[in-house]
Predict the structure.
Amino acid sequence: MPQELTVLALAGLLLLVHVFAAIRLKTAQYGVEWNMGARDGDLPPLNPVAARLERARDNFLETLPLAIIGLGGVVLADKASDYTAIAAWVWLGARAIYLPLYWAGVPKVRTYVWAVALLALLYPLGVLLLG
């Protein structure tokens, strides 16, 4: 299997980590009844850590489609290479590092790690567009 697809499969697992980390802290704050209910109604603001995990999850969900397009695209177009595989692993590694940095509230470094992930995604997208 192409490494780009392995990375996308692992990204699915990372997405689950994001989802469960965010909902665990949100449920800890609002309670199991809220979690198992319709979740209608206004709620008080999330505590800072739960809010950061929710934002980190949302950020991952915003960039995951780019990874699917870029990494899946190079495989489908038969343009996968060692370089696109390296870009895939760099993207996944940066995204895995990003979550604990955001969780801990680390400023600046988190943004640099996000930028590395974005740059890694630009490579396969460029391969798709420019050959």
